[in-house]
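Thread: quick sanity check before group meeting

JM: Hey all, I'm pulling together slides for Thursday and realized we never actually wrote out the predicted structure for the chain we discussed last week. Dropping the sequence here so it's in one place. If anyone has concerns about the input, flag it before I start.
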Amino acid sequence: MKRSKQAKSVDPIAPVAIDDLVPSGSCVSIERPECIVQDPHAIELAVRKRLSKEKGIRFMELVVRRMPDGICLDGVVHTDGNCPDVAKVVREIAKVDRVVNHLLVLPNAEKECFSDEDWASSIE
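JM (edit): ok, ran it. Output follows.
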């Protein structure tokens, strides 16, 4: 039996990194290089470090998500009322224009509650 078509051969010495998802010979281009910023985890660490210097603010949870046109913040922060402009801080760190702030801001508690009974007695 004869083959009518031969398989295309692959150049064995083409430059390709093992972990490279896009081969170097591809025609992929970056349309908006200004959208490339540092890793969201690095941004999260930088935001945490910067905000930890502020008096009267304490993050219980902080998640930073990269969006095509900016950064989204989720989490819980306790403050004594003097909360800095978190979006401004993130804009400076991440070099983006859009920051979606989904942070839940709660007042600092006098004491931490460890059970429902402690919580109930603290609001009476």
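AS: nice. The chain has three helices and three strands. The radius of gyration is 25 Å.
JM: adding both to the slides.
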